[in-house]
Amino acid sequence: MDYIYLSDLFSNVIELKGKDIKLKGWIKNHRKQKEFGFIYFSDGTCFKQLQLVYDKELKNFEEIQKIKIGSAIEVIGELIESQGGGQEYELKVKELKLHGDCTDDYPIQPKQHSMEFLREQSYLRLRTNTFQAVFRIRSVASMAIHEFFQSRGFIYAHTPIFTASDCEGAGEMFRVTTQDLNKIVKTGKVENEKEYFGKPVGLTVSGQFEGEAFAQAFSKIYTFGPTFRADPSHTPLHIAEFWQIEPEVAFCDLEGIMDISEDFMKFIIKYTLDRCPDEFKFLDKFVENGLIEKLIKVISNKFVRATYKECIEILQKADIKFQFKPEYGEDLAKEHERYITDYFKCPVFITYWPQKVKKCFYMKQMDDGTVANADLEMPGIGETYGMSQREDDFDKLDKYITELGMDKSEYIWYMNLRKYGTTTHSGFGMGFERLIMYMTGMTNIRDVIAFPRTPGNCLY
Amino acid sequence: MDYIYLSDLFSNVIELKGKDIKLKGWIKNHRKQKEFGFIYFSDGTCFKQLQLVYDKELKNFEEIQKIKIGSAIEVIGELIESQGGGQEYELKVKELKLHGDCTDDYPIQPKQHSMEFLREQSYLRLRTNTFQAVFRIRSVASMAIHEFFQSRGFIYAHTPIFTASDCEGAGEMFRVTTQDLNKIVKTGKVENEKEYFGKPVGLTVSGQFEGEAFAQAFSKIYTFGPTFRADPSHTPLHIAEFWQIEPEVAFCDLEGIMDISEDFMKFIIKYTLDRCPDEFKFLDKFVENGLIEKLIKVISNKFVRATYKECIEILQKADIKFQFKPEYGEDLAKEHERYITDYFKCPVFITYWPQKVKKCFYMKQMDDGTVANADLEMPGIGETYGMSQREDDFDKLDKYITELGMDKSEYIWYMNLRKYGTTTHSGFGMGFERLIMYMTGMTNIRDVIAFPRTPGNCLY
C-alpha cells in the first residue's frame, strides 16, 4: 500500500474520509491510557498534525504504548471525523509499526524549550512547531522571490562568493586561504603566490557590482545567494553569513527601483500569507500578536516617499524631545526613524540623503550634494534595506573613488561599465533574514537561519 | 512615452505592428550606408535582436551614424514587416538618441572572439550571443529546479557555507581566517582562539549532512547553493566554486531517489527547452550540433537501471579491447562508462557499487559488501552525478567512521540523527554547472558560470 503525505491528506479530506490511508512520519506527542492511546503525528509536510487513535484491539497494543516521542513510525488507519475536540479529523489506527526508534536522551520534548537551548540543538530544532513554521515560510518566501522576478523577465544571476576586491582592507571581510597557518609560523613568511588563486581573496559582502555587469547585458537581473560579513557585533540583528536579494535594473532610475521594491515587498508577503495560513496563525498567537494584521497593512497601503530633507524638517518640528537632535547632514537615529514611520503610519522610503552621510561611492551624485538613494523604513523595525540609482558617470565615479582613498585598480572593470554603453541604472540590496524576521515576528536573526554563524559560533 | 522590453515586443508583434514603440537597449552592430543605416539592437531581455532602420529624413542622421557599437540608445519607431530578408519585423526609426556612449577600446566587437579571450573579459562577455544564450538557460533552469521541488512539497533548505567539519584535514577545503597572516609571521604563533568563530572553519563542500537534518524534520527538502572545492586540477570540468542541488528525502529508498532523479532531469530539460527555443536553436547551430535532439531523447526515454555487477559482466563480455580491464571491485574508467551508455543507448543508473570502491561512509551498507547507491551515466559525457540511500543504522555508521579513521567528534550530531527517529532516507547531489554544460553543449565549465574561480584565477 502506497503511503501519502500529510499535506496531501489535509487537502483531500473529503475524498479520503472513511478510507484506509498509510502514513509515515514522527511522533510529536503520545498520551497513553489503559485501553486507548493518542499519538500526535507529523511528517513535516504541513504545519497541521494528525491525531492517531489506537486501542486494545490492536495485537501489538502493548508494544505501541512503548513507542517514544521522536520515533519514526508507519501507520495504516481509517480517516474519520474526530470524536474529541481540537481537530476535525483523526486516524483510527489499524496497523502501526515502529520505523526508527528514539532514545531516551532525545532533547526535543513536548514542552516549552527556550530559544537559547534550541539554538544549541540547531539540527533538531527544525522539528519544533516554531521552526516548522519559520522554515516553511522561509522556503515559500524564497520561491516568491524567484516567482516575482522570473515572471517579470529578470535573469537570476549567480554572482561569485570568492572576490578579489577589498580583500586586503578586510575590515569586515573574511579571508580565504589555502596556506597552512602553522607552516607560516615555521617558515616565517606569507607566500601569497602559493595561494590557490595566486593572491589573497575574500568572501563577498555583496553581489551588486557583478550584478551591475549582468544588468548591462540583460537589462533586468537579480541575485539571491549567501553573502558574508565578519562583523563582530553581538546583537540579535547581526550574523556572519546571510542571504541577500540584489536586483539591478538598467534604464531604471530611483523612482523605478522604488516601484519595483514596493511591488516586491507586497508580492512576497501576499504570496507567503496565501500559502502558509496555519504557520502565520501559529506565529500570530505565540510569537507576535497582531502579526497577520501588520502584514496585511503592508500589502494594502501605498508606501510613502519623503526626502531626507523633508524628514529632517518633520523631526525638527516634532513636539517631542529626542535624545539626538535631528540635524541636516547627520544620520537618522532609531528614534528618528520610529517617529517618521509613526508620523506617516506606513512604510516610508526616505530619499536623497546627503552624500557625506552615506559615503557610498557607487550612488548617483546629484547637484545639491545629495545622492539618488532611498532607505525603506518599516513601522516597528525602522530601516530595512537600501536602494539607489548607481553613478553612471565615469568621471564622477573616478573622482569620488580617489577622494575616498580606495584602491582604484580593483574597480577598473566596474568603472569600465560606465565607458561601454553606460545606462541610468538602479538596484536594491535586501537582507533575506531581516525580511523573514519581519514576516515571522522572530526577534533574533539566529532563529530565522537554520545554522546561524555568529562570533564564536559555528556549529556543525 | 513608456518604453517596452524587446521580449514583450516579440510576444505581441501582431498587436504592435504599425504602432509607434519606444525601446531602450544597446547597439550590437551598425551598418551604415549613405542614405540609410541599420542597427542590430538588443536589450538583453530575449535572445532575438531587432533591426532598426533609419534614413536621412531624421534630422540627427549624421550624429546617429557616428554612434558606436556597444552604446546604449533610446529609440522610437514604427514596427513594420521587414523589407529585407533575415527577420520578420523591423523598426522604422522616427527618433533615436544616444543614452550612454561607448569608447573605441570596447573589447566586444561583432566578430568571433575566442573563448579564452572572452574569459578574460568575463564582465563583458555576458553581452555576446553565446553567453546571452547560456546564462538565460542557466536562469530558466534554476527556476525549473525551484518549480520542480516546490510543486512537489519540498522545502528549500539554506544549508551553511561556513562549516566546522573537516576543516583541519583540509585536503580539498578552503580555510577561512580572520587572522592577519603577516601578524602570524611577526608574533610567530597561530591564535585560533582569536578567530572570528573561536576556531578554524572551512567552506562547505556539500550541504548534504545539514540537508539530512532538514529531511528528518520536513520529510522532503532540497538545497540549491554554492559549494567549494580547493581542487587544484586544471581541467575543463573542475572549478573551485560551483552550485549544487542536493535533495534529501525521508522514508525514501534508492529506488525512490532514482525515480525523483529521473523525473527531475526530464523536468528541468523540458521546462528549459519549452522556454528558450531561440537559445537552444542558436547553441544547436553554433556550439553542439544535434543538441536539441540529444535533449529530446533524454526526456522521451526511460532511464535504464543496472547494477554495477551487471555492468562489469557486460564489459567483460564486450567484443572490444579496453585500455583498463574491467574487474569487479575496481572503479569504472571513462571508456567503460562510454561502453555502458552505448550499450543501453540511453541514460543508465549504475547501482549497488562495492563499498570499497566508493568509500563513502554515509552510504547504506548492504549485506553483500555493496552500498545502496547509484551513479547516473549520460550518453556522451559519462558519470554526471551520484545518489544513495543513506546509512540509517547508528552502529554501522559508527563502525565505518572508526574504520576510515575519521574524527568522530565532528559527526556526533550527524550520527545522532540515527538515534532520534531514524528513517530510510536518500538523496542526490548534482553539480549545477555540469548540468548546464550538458544542456548547452558548452565544453568548459568556466563558460557556464559567470565569474569562474579556478587555480590562479579570481577576476573581480
List key phrases describing it.
460 residues; 17 helices; homodimer; 34% helix; alpha+beta; 18 strands; 10-stranded mixed sheet; 5-stranded mixed barrel
Largest sheet of chain A: 10 strands, mixed
Characterize the overall form of chain A: globular
Tally of helical segments of chain A: 17
**Secondary-structure-derived class of chain A:** alpha+beta
Quaternary state reads: homodimer
Describe this structure in words.
Two copies of one chain form a homodimer. With 460 residues, chain A is an alpha+beta fold. Chain A has 17 helices and 18 strands. Chain A has helices at residues 6-11, 13-16, 61-65, 115-119, 122-125, 129-151, 181-187, 208-218, 254-275, 277-286, 291-300, 308-317, 334-344, 355-358, 394-403, 412-416, 432-440; strands at residues 20-32, 36-42, 50-55, 72-81, 89-100, 155-156, 162-163, 175-177, 201-203, 220-222, 224-228, 241-245, 248-250, 304-307, 348-351, 373-378, 382-389, 425-431. In chain A, strands 6, 10, 11, 12, 13, 14, 15, 16, 17 and 18 form a ten-stranded mixed β-sheet that branches. In chain A, strands 1-2-3-5-4 form a five-stranded mixed barrel. In chain A, β2 (36-42) and β3 form a beta hairpin. The longest helix of chain A has 23 residues, at 129-151. The model of chain A has no long low-confidence stretch (mean pLDDT 95). Chains A and B meet through β1, α6, β6, β7 and β8 of A and β1, α5, β6, β7 and β8 of B. β8 of chain A pairs antiparallel with β8 of chain B.
